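Q: How would the C-alpha cells look for this protein?
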Amino acid sequence: MVGSDTMEAGAGGIALYLHIPFCQTKCSYCDFNTYAGINDLIPGFVRALCGEIAQWGRLLGGPEVETVFFGGGTPSLLSPEQLALVMDTIRGSFRLSPGAEVTTEANPEDVTRERMAGFLACGVNRVSMGVQTLDRGLLKVLGRRHTVERAGEAMKAARAAGFTSINLDLMYGLSLQTLDQWRATLQGVLALRPEHLSAYCLTLEEGTALHRWVRRGSLPEPDEDLAADMYNLAEDVLGQTGYRHYEISNWTLPGQECRHNLVYWRNGPYLGVGPGAHSHLGGYRFATGLSPHEHLRNVAAWETRRQTRESILSEPLLKSIPTVAEVEAIDRRLEMAETAMLALRLDEGLDLGAFEDRFGQAADDAFPGVFAEMREAGLVDITESLDGPCCVLTPRGRLLSNEVFQRLLSVRPRQAVGGRG
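A: Here is the predicted structure in C-alpha cell form.
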C-alpha cells in the first residue's frame, strides 16, 4: 500500500517545478541534468514543455498550483516571449493561485533590465541568481562566465526592472578558498541586500571536472574543518544583519522564505516537468528521463493520445506515461522518516503534535530510542512553540545534520497497532 498521503489526482494545491536543461557552458562542479551546445533545441523544447504541462493538467484535473519554479540549467536563456507562453499554458492547464510565488533561476550574465521586465510582465515575481562567489580567481575555478562586477550589475538590473524578491546562491568549502575570501563574499553580497540567500557547501560529485582535478592533484581536497568554520561565519555575519537562518542552507529577511522549497521541506506534493524532473504526488515519487532529445520524443508520443482525468494515481497509470522513467511507491514508514528528516532541516523543526496527527503515532514511538539518543548526543533539542513541542537541530546538529538524517532513514519506523498501512 502506498503512503498515507494517497490522494485523488488533483486534490489540494501543489508546487510545480519546470526543468530547463540548457546552459551556455557546463560549470566545473555541476552534476545537474544540464547540457551545453544544444540551445538550438530551445524553441521545440518550449513547445514540448507546454504540451507536457497541458497533459498533466488534464490527467490531474487542473489542481491549484501554489508555487512555480523554473530551474535548470539556465531558465534565463529563454526569452520573455517563451517564458510567457509557458506561463499562459500553466494558467490554462491548472488553477494558478492568486499571489502564487513564481521563481526563475538566472545567471548574472543573462540579466538585463529589459529581460527582467519581460519576465516580470509574464508573471515571474521572484528571481534566484547563481553568484556563487565574489572572488575572481574562484569564479574561474568554478567555470562561471560572469565577473564580480557583473554580479552586482545583474542585481541592480533586476531591482530596476521591479523585482522585490531576489535570492542569491553562494558556495563555500571550495578548493583554495580561504576564510577571508568567504568573509569578503558575504560582505559584498550583504551590500546588495537580497531578500534571500542560499549558501551551499561544495560537494565533489563524481564525473565533474572539479572532481577530476582534485583526484589527479591539480587542486587540493576541500578542507571539511575549514568549511565548518565558513558555515559558522555565515551564521554569525548574516544573523547580525537581520537574516533569519530558517533552513540549514538558507537565510531570509522577514517574510521572504522560499515558499516553493518549503513544500519540499514539509514533504508536500509537487509535480516536476521537463527532462530529469522529479515529482511527489499521491503516495508516489516518480521522475522523467534525462535526455532532452528523448524527452521531446516522449512528450510527442504522449500527446498523440488525448489524456483524460484520472480519479486516483496508480503505479500502472504512471508507468504508462511515456515521459515517466522511474516510479517508486512511498510506504507509510518511509513517509514518516522523510517527513521527520525534512522538517528537521527547518529552524521551526519537527512539530511533534502535527506528526502524531498526520500518522496517528508519536515520533518517539515511531522511532524508538532515536530522538532520545540524538538529544543525549547534543544533536537535537525539544522546544516549545505556540503550536506545541517541536524537535529542532542544535547548532552542533546542523553541522552534523547528515548523521541525524542517516540515523532516521536507517531505522525503520515502528508500525502502530491499528495504524494505516
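The CA atoms of residues 199 and 249 lie 5 Å apart.

The first helix runs from residue 42 to 60.

Upvote if useful.
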